[in-house]
Amino acid sequence: MSTRLGTTSAPARKSILSQWKRRETLAAWLFLLPALVGFIVFFAVPAVRGFYIGLTDWDLLSDAEYIGFENYSDLLQDDDFWHSMWVTLYYVLLNIPLQTVMALVLAVLFSRFVRGFGWRSLLLLPWLMPNVVVALLFLWILDPGMGIVNQVLDAIGLPRQSFLGSVDQSMPSIAGINIWRHVGYTALLLIAGMQRIPKDLYDAGSLDGASEFRMFWSITLPLLRPILVFVLVTSVVGSFQIFDTIAVTTQGGPVDATRVIYWFIYQHAFERFNFGYASAASIILFAILVVVSLIQMRLLRVNESDLS
């Protein structure tokens, strides 16, 4: 192509370049088309449909009756809805800080002391297990009668605990289950981010006499910010959507201690057949997640880079 451009006139070169740009643009759209079609069919259309259903009174069996924003008004005055939101927020505050800190510690340890890719791939094993399987596994492990954890507590003389059956312990137990499943995957993302940091920066820090903690705080953490933004935003959104672990283990109990917002939506949709009310709650949750994500990206300066 460079030979052709060098032996042709300026208008001809512009014509050739414009043709190449059109071809590249067409190729890009062809690659994006499957994902775009999937997004429209499975996300955009259902989202618009869900917003409309939220404006109706519909039990799936009869025709939907348009009632405007009555569902939204009722939700804002529904104590059960706000309780579910607070329970979800409590889970997020238990899950995100612990998971992020543990993932950072694992990432630093693996980056410094573990070089083999095979060992690092072990971090993915819990994440590769389906949520339902993990929930069933821990349901047996934490069983008050036959669970191995209570067997160990009994063997060392400590009282047995009703982890998933206690109002105080159920939500921390749910958070612990999901931290165990996701912390390795999060650590692997952070390890990938650490590999992008130039080694010269650490060499310069060592020559200046900086300690390991000082280099982590002044070099590693600031330059990991783009990966941390991705991890925090996706983790927070995923934590607000916790459902399958709750469905398998506690089903919102005991005494609504784990009745998160997704379980609230599920109950109204598939137990009470109030699809309009459930759809309205889903739209409110979507709006909350958009606002939370934008705030996170703004506070963490997602459009700036320290690695330049």
Folded structure, characterized:
With 308 residues, the protein is mainly α. The chain is built from 15 helices and two strands. The chain has helices spanning 2-6, 10-53, 70-76, 79-113, 117-121, 125-128, 131-141, 148-155, 170-195, 199-207, 212-223, 225-240, 244-249, 261-271, 275-299; strands spanning 56-57, 65-66. Helix 4 (79-113) crosses helix 9, helix 4 packs antiparallel against helix 12 (225-240) and helix 4 crosses helix 14. The longest helix is centred in the N-terminal third of the chain and has 44 residues, at 10-53. It starts with a helix and ends in a 9-residue tail after the last helix. The model is unreliable at 1-5 (pLDDT under 50).
CATH H-level superfamily title of the largest domain: MetI-like
Compute the gyration radius: what is it?
26 Å
Secondary structure: number of strands:
2
Shape-level CATH architecture of the largest domain = Orthogonal Bundle
Please report the first level of CATH classification, the CATH class of the largest domain: Mainly Alpha
Mean pLDDT equals 88
Q: Distance N terminus to C terminus?
A: 32 Å
Major sheet summary line:
2 strands, antiparallel
The CATH topology of the largest domain: MetI-like fold
The helix-strand sequence is HHEEHHHHHHHHHHHHH
Structural class: mainly alpha
- For the record, the count of structural domains works out to 2
Low-confidence stretches: 1-5
Bin the helical content: over 70%
Q: Which overall shape is indicated by the principal axes computed on the Cα atoms? A: flat
SS summary, helix count: 15
Strand order of the largest sheet: 1-2
Note the beta-strand portion: under 5%
